[in-house]
Write a structure and sequence with these properties.
Number of strands: 9
Helix content: 40-55%
Order of helices and strands: HHEEHHEEEEEEEHH
Distance between the termini: 7 Å
Low-confidence stretches: none
Largest sheet: 6 strands, antiparallel
Length: 240
């Protein structure tokens, strides 16, 4: 169980990503120089750091903490911002520095098929922007006083507490969770996304199942969701 403020974690994450962006731009500029003493080490550094980011992404993807953090801004319990999207965004950004730098240089010099280079460069910038959007930490599950919000990049999925089946509100299925409903008519969806019964397991599935079961079957505690005191209480109540 964690009680760190969600906003503070996001601020630190943004600082890390800004640092990665500055490094990627510097490497992109360095790889466009004519001096082999500069561009060769810059290219090697880019590949090495990208490889490290991919390796860290692979390792971090296997870990799902049995923890929630407080989001005071949203008055909700949320999963701690996960590391894999950050490492993935870092890999795209680092690799994109030299790639976009090369395309920009081709466009400036009006090399043959420079419009294609411009399109490729713009596409990579868009890919990096999407990765940053995902890494921002504003997606995933939110446990709120009124229910569970599943916020994804292209849509959202809201389940009021009273919509869940009290006997078995959630069950672990593969790498995610499946919801069981007593009142499916209360469930609301917006935009694109997964099915009405599919939820991501941003934290340890068994831990999240116990927490959701607590609020589905004890409505008197719902109004306190989003406070540190309640996070401590539900942790003690669920044996977390």
């Amino acid at each position: 169980m964690l009680t760190r403020d969600f906003a503070a974690i996001i601020r630190r994450r943004r600082l890390v990503m800004i640092g990665v962006l500055v490094l990627a731009v510097a490497l992109g500029i360095a790889t466009e120089t004519d001096r082999v003493q500069i561009w060769l080490p810059a290219a090697a550094t880019t590949l090495a750091l990208t490889g490290v980011a991919v390796a860290l992404y692979t390792r971090a993807s296997r870990h799902r903490p049995a923890a929630l953090v407080v989001s005071r801004r949203e008055r909700a319990f949320v999963a701690p911002p996960s590391a894999p999207p950050v490492f993935q965004a870092a890999a795209f950004t680092l690799l994109g520095g030299p790639l976009v730098g090369d395309k920009v240089a081709d466009v400036i010099s009006r090399e043959y098929l420079w419009p294609v280079d411009a399109a490729l460069g713009a596409t990579w910038v868009l890919l990096v922007a999407v990765q940053w959007h995902v890494a921002a930490g504003r997606h995933g599950l939110r446990l709120r006083p009124d229910g569970v919000l599943n916020r994804q990049a292209l849509g959202s999925h809201f389940i009021p507490w009273d919509a869940f089946d009290p006997a078995l509100p959630l069950a672990a299925v593969g790498h995610g969770l499946a919801a069981s409903y007593h009142r499916p008519d209360l469930v609301r969806r917006r935009g694109l996304g997964g099915g009405r019964r599919t939820l991501p397991a941003d934290v340890d599935p068994e831990y999240l199942i116990r927490v959701v079961h607590e609020y589905v079957n004890h409505p008197e505690h719902r109004t306190a969701v989003g406070s540190e005191a309640e996070l401590h209480r539900v942790g003690a109540a669920t044996g977390s």
